[in-house]
Design goal:
Length: about 400
């Protein structure tokens, strides 16, 4: 069973909606202009009709809910309350009936105005003033036609010489970035649009001269293949058609690309297969360990931890190592350096002695005599004594 508070709420809503609809009807009857051919007035009328229709629908929904609630509370309502409910329902019906009449009247006026707007341009129907139906024919003045000049744009934009010159310049400057197949493909893609546009501009691109000119932009290998394909078929100059050259270049480059792709796959497969059997390790020369710090990165004579002779001697004495081994090695190194210095000084003295000799005309010196010349200084070069430490 419905609550009396719910009933009062529906009654308040129904009253509010009915008051809103009454205000809309009063506004439509007083403020709106008569419907005619003005476009703005017709729009205002149409908007008002839509607003009235929406409000009427809202009132109908609220009225249905109000009646259903009253039916559920009919046993609890006394006779006075039932009369009030009936008055609310009657007043709501009256407002709805007024709204429907207003909407019908305005809709008919709008349709009449639309028919007048679509009437022939030479006549304007005017409502009769003497009560007799009819329309006064009123002729509208005809204005002279405004002359509109024909503009084709060819005078300024119809000159194709600049476009042709630009395309020819681009064709002349076309060069391949690299001599690879990918570079030749990019060059062909760059040239094809230029050739197509020149052909649409009625430029003759056939002939052996242009064919050789476009072939010169590609690698010699591709030129040879194209010429090998075209020479047997092109016996006259007119047989060299640009489209045939382009098609031949495209076919040859496509073939080279497929070959390169298959070769790359084969090499890639072989490389992976070889990785299964690693190559044998290289035999590298192993540096002997340092007798002092046992490092394999340097020799004993270049040890940085025991760089002085005294430190090396103390190291060997502490470990009861023989001192002659290191001494013999050091003596051999010193003797080798002194022998090299002595040989260098002997060569210099020999050159000076040869230059100081006075050789008479016709006198020859045998090679053996030059080799066994003795220095006049009388120094005795005994390697044993000089190398002794």
């Amino acid at each position: 069973m419905a609550d009396p508070m719910f009933l009062r709420s529906q009654k308040a809503l129904l009253t509010r909606y009915c008051n809103n609809l009454s205000r809309l009807l009063d506004k439509g009857e007083k403020e709106l202009h008569p419907i005619g051919t003005e476009f703005s007035a017709n729009n205002e009328t149409q908007a008002l009709l839509h607003e009235i229709d929406s409000t009427s629908q809202l009132i109908l929904d609220t009225l249905s809910a109000f009646i259903a609630t009253c039916d559920s509370l009919i046993d609890t309502l006394d006779e006075e309350q039932q009369k009030q409910v009936q008055q609310y329902i009657d007043s709501t019906h009256a407002v709805l009936d007024r709204a429907h009449c207003f909407a019908i009247h305005r809709d008919a006026a709008l349709r009449s105005a639309r028919e007048q707007m679509h009437a022939p341009s030479g006549t304007i129907p005017i409502a009769p003033t003497n009560g007799i139906g009819g329309a006064v024919q009123m002729t509208q003045p005809k204005l002279p036609a405004i002359p509109i000049p024909n503009f084709s744009g060819k005078k300024k934009y119809g000159d194709n010489t600049k476009l042709i010159a630009s395309l020819q310049t681009r064709f002349e400057n076309a060069r391949a970035e690299r001599s690879t197949i990918q570079g030749q493909r990019r060059l062909l893609k760059y040239i094809i649009p230029i050739i197509t546009q020149l052909g649409k501009l009625s430029i003759n691109l056939d002939g052996s001269y242009l064919a050789q000119k476009i072939l010169a932009k590609f690698t010699p290998a591709i030129q040879r293949q194209v010429l090998a394909c075209r020479l047997p078929k092109s016996t006259n100059d007119s047989d060299w058609r640009m489209q045939d050259i382009i098609n031949t270049l495209d076919d040859l480059i496509t073939t080279e690309e497929r070959i390169q792709e298959m070769v790359d796959k084969t090499v890639h497969h072989d490389t992976h297969s070889n990785l299964r059997d690693p190559p044998p390790p290289r035999l590298t020369h192993k540096i002997p360990l340092c007798m002092f710090c046992r490092s394999d990165k340097h020799k004993s004579s270049l040890c940085t931890q025991y760089s002085t002779i005294s430190a090396q001697r103390i190291f060997m004495q502490e470990r009861n190592l023989c001192l002659n081994d290191d001494a013999d090695k050091e003596n051999k190194r010193r003797k080798q350096n002194e022998d090299e210095q002595r040989t260098t000084s002997r060569n210099a003295d020999y050159i000076e002695s040869v230059d100081s000799l006075e050789i008479e005309e016709g006198e020859e010196i045998e090679p053996e005599e030059m080799l066994f010349m003795v220095d006049e200084s009388g120094e005795d070069d005994d390697p044993a004594e000089e190398g002794e430490i």
